[in-house]
DNA sequence: GCTATGACAAGGA
DNA sequence: CTCCTTGCCATAG
């Protein structure tokens, strides 16, 4: 069990129903600003473990980009719709409308220092 | 330790 | 908007 994996899973599990986050956003909040691609990989091997809502993570262009045969795009689309999120036929999602914007208090619980939390806030709350 | 592989992202054409 | 290039970095072999 790597620290990285645990961290990513922890963040993904804290995404509330009805909200989505991008791979880069999850990586950023987890404390790995440039680990977007690794998030996809972690979800590929660990997605589905202990109730991890892997389907709430999409790319920053608002599209579903899974290629995993265990977790196909159609499955992800259905899971998102069950969360109340509108997904177009071409797998497009209005990410800015549904984007998860964790509060300062929520971020502090993740043991991130104040300066770093400010960076996250300024990036997604403009 | 070194190379190859990406469920990615951002910027240029 | 689409297509392409470059930068990224944890894992697997």
UniProtKB/TrEMBL annotation:
Keywords on record: DNA damage, Methyltransferase, Transferase
- What GO biological process, any one, is recorded here? methylation
Task: Indicate the segments forming the Methylated-DNA-[protein]-cysteine S-methyltransferase DNA binding domain, all copies.
Answer: 4-84
InterPro entries given in the database record? ATL_DNA_repair, MethylDNA_cys_MeTrfase_DNA-bd, MethylDNA_cys_MeTrfase_DNAb, WH-like_DNA-bd_sf
MF terms in GO: methyltransferase activity
What name does the UniProt record give this protein? DNA methyltransferase
Q: Which domain of life is it from?
A: Bacteria
Database matches in Pfam families: DNA_binding_1 (PF01035)
Q: Which organism is it from?
A: candidate division WWE3 bacterium
Q: Can the keyword Transferase be found in this entry's annotation?
A: yes
